[in-house]
Amino acid sequence: MVTRRGDDPRLLPSETALRVIMRRLREIMSDDDDGQGRLDRIVRQIAGVMVAEVCSIYLKRQDGSLELFATEGLNPNAVHATRMKRGEGLVGRCAELGTIVNEPEASSHPAFSYRPETGEEVYHSLLAVPITRSGEVLGVLVIQNLTPREYSDEDVEVLQATALVIAENLVSGAVAGTGAAIEVSRSQPMIIEGEPISDGIALGHLVLHEPRIVVTQLLADNPAAELDRLDRALNTLQSNIDEMFEHEHMSAAGEHRDVLEAYRMFAHDKGWHRRLREAVEGGLTAEAAVERVQNTMRTRMLRQHDAYWRERQRDLDDLSDRLLRVLAGRLTSSANGSDLPPDAILVARTMGPAELLDYDRNKLRGLIVEDGSSQSHVAVVAKALGIAAIGQASGIVECVNAGDAVIVDAVAGEVHLRPTSEVISAYSDKVRFRARRQKRYLALRDRPAITKDGVRISLHINAGLIVDMPHLEESGADGVGLYRTELQFMLSDAFPRLDKQTQLYRTVMAEAGDRPVVFRTLDIGGDKVLPYLRQPKEENPSMGWRAIRMAIDRPELFRLQLRAMLKAAGGRELRVMIPMVSASYEMGAIRALIEREKEFLAKHGHALPQEVLVGAMLEVPALLFELDAFLQRVDFVSVGSNDLMQFLFAADRTNARVASRFDVLSPAPLRALRTLMKAAKRYRVPVTVCGEMAGRPLEAMTLLGLGLRTLSMAPASIGPIKAMILSVNAEAVRELVEDLLKEGAKEVRQALEAFAENNGVEIDS
Ligand code: PEP
Ligand code: MG
After folding, report:
1. In this predicted model, what pLDDT tens digit does every residue of 484-534 receive, in sequence order?
2. Of 14-28, 424-438, 611-625, which gets the smallest average pLDDT?
3. What is the average pLDDT value for the chain, to the nearest integer?
């Protein structure tokens, strides 16, 4: 067919190009041609409308390889002959990662895989989009051009919309049928590893999070009526989200509620509504519009590599799925209906926080998602609901059937699918044991932590969210030894304003009652990023412009936070702790800023705290070599052993390959702590440890031996640490540790273990 100039999509808005393709696809689908014939016509049409020299369709075979099924422009003999291994080449990469590849110079890309039989070496630019359905990649749609060029966002949109139609028709068997199936063994027991994102162990039966609604009709017969449908669905969606705020677990203030607020804002976003309307006005059904806009926005978000955008993308996916369910009249289907088993364990590729709240909490035991990290929004909600959850369980959806027995071990980070009876009984024991142990620790709750020889140890919790605060009461801890304020900043969409910050600190102190709280000022940098704060790209962010370094260079943010803390603590004691101090002079600068803020507030008639204690974290080894100057400038010190060890051993704490090869229970770090303790005694500065080591019984026992009397840890560690303290003799450990740190001592950990064993010290982690 001759392309009229008016049909040339380079000269017309993409909407028109899309419509032309849609119309032609509809014609192709309604003709009674065989599958191969249809594919051949599709690639010809796309190449014509998109003015591409090549258009090809690759489909996934059972073994995960991609086979060239149809092409316009490449050598026809390559069809059904060219196969790419899983992940091979740019096309394989597109399928494997489910991402768009847009390369002006494809052949010079490192992932390019040269296939002489196709004759593609003459083509410079390549645009590949995955053909996906219900999140599953079925194949790849590719266009190529002779001239090097970067395809525009509009080109990407048109190709994506086309891929959508192909996917729907492939699945309904109208096109090729046989080739695209994924082979999985879904009957054997298996273990899938992931990352614990909400602590706990759960046994139950698997429920597949309602698969995405499949969009079958793409073009609207009556656009005006369709627009009306869309508007009504958007209204229902919004009121449904508003109702979630009434949910029993969500009505209290806290970060989980903030997460939902951000989600609600997204649902009301005018830009999203406008895009949806425009897509419907362009001739799509409301459902197709939802998919189209989701794909376009996702493409843009995927270009951003930070955690914030990944989280926003999840919110968008969640909202789009929800809107599709509203349109299909299936919003409240299985989620809270009676067909949910009483021990449901949800499995999903991805899940938004609001979707999790759709399920009946009384029947929900666990959650497994293919993506998701412990900082993701769904993790925050899972923790607030108290269900065991695992993220990063890649590929799990492909391996399960609804109703399968499953065990979520969100302690070890393992999912046991279809476990054998031995595994089930071992885990049942484990669950019972944990429950018994919890009960026993609960019984210790009101007992003070006093060693066998009468030394009182003060135990504090580390916190960072309002939802952590009830743990103070539950664990019977003496206070909050570390409140990581950056979490509020990390969960917000924008820098939290003064009143928001003040309100949070006030709530934290109110929840703590008489017990002290140590607020650590913002520790941003390293793996902690604020999406809305422009930071220079750094090669080594954990050793870069972070925490106190930012506070000194950009005091506005820091002063605002201090002002919020000072205001919130009006009339009571305030403990402020500064992270990542590297030199004693920094504390001088910080103290001057605090004094300035105090003066400012006093001048404006605000009540000041009764007392302001300013402490520092000891995380940078350099401080150990100027302890005299440092200790004179601080009211207390807390050892951040996580960072201290990373810098002492030069071993990145986030890199699993190196993080665990150095032992904190070895002479170097223990001598470092001993040096600190001796100097702190001279200057009468109290020292605490708040890094992970304080929450491990053997390590905590060693810290007692070094003279520490205050420890701060995750709330779940309070019980085991108290049990250790109640069973140990502090003087005996002191002698042992002193002995072990003499010149020539080796095998420190083994000696400590042997001591615990021989002296009946409870070491239970
Ligand atoms: C530490 O470094 O030990 C610490 C407690 O701080 P964070 O883990 O938040 O860096
Ligand atoms: Mg730290």
Report:
1. 898 788 767 688 999 999 999 999 999 999 999 999 999 887 666 776 777
2. 14-28
3. 85
Report the length, in residues, of the chain.
Answer: 765
For ligand 2, a single-atom ion, the residues with CB < 5 A are 619, 640, 643
Nearest ligand atom owner, CA of 711 = 1
Neighbours of 152 (CB within 10 A): 13
Q: Show the tokens assigned to 554.
A: 């950009």
Atom index in ligand 1 nearest the CA of residue 690 equals 5
CA 396, 397, 400, 402 dihedral sign is: positive
3-state secondary structure of 85: coil
Burial of 441-474, coded b for 16+ CB within 10 Å and e otherwise, reads beebeeeebebbeebebbbbbbbbbbbbbebbee
**Helix or strand or coil: residue 577?**
strand
Taking the C-alpha atoms of 279, 284, 288 and 294 in order, what is their torsion angle to the nearest 10 degrees?
A: -10
Q: What is the pTM of this model?
A: 0.58
- With a 6 A CB cut-off, is 643 part of the ligand 1 pocket? yes
Bridge partners for 369 per DSSP? 348
528 lines ligand 1 (CB under 6 A): no
620 Cα: distance to centroid of ligand 2 (angstroms):
9
Query: pLDDT digit string (tens) for 244-288?
Result: 777 655 666 666 777 778 778 888 888 899 999 998 988 888 998
Nearest CA to ligand 1 atom 1: 640
The number of the ligand 1 atom at minimal distance from the alpha carbon of 641 is 3
Write the secondary structure of 400-466 as one string of H (helix), E (strand) and C (coil): CCCCCEEEEECCCCEEEECCCHHHHHHHHHHHHHHHHHHHHHHHHCCCCCECCCCCECEEEEEECCH
Residue recorded with tokens 């995960």: 64
Counting from 1 in the atom list of ligand 1, the atom nearest the Cα of 482 is: 5
Q: Lowest-pLDDT range, 5-9, 109-113, 665-669, 735-739?
A: 5-9
Q: How many angstroms separate the Cα of 215 from the Cα of each of 165, 324, 328, 343, 496?
A: 9, 8, 10, 31, 40
Measured in Å, residue 646 CA sits from the centre of ligand 2 at 10
List residues with catalytic annotation.
377, 690
Strands (E), 274-417: 344-348, 364-369, 388-391, 405-409, 414-417
Task: Catalogue all structural domains in the chain, each as residue range(s) with its CATH number.
Answer: 13-172 (3.30.450.40), 190-428 (3.50.30.10), 444-758 (3.20.20.60)
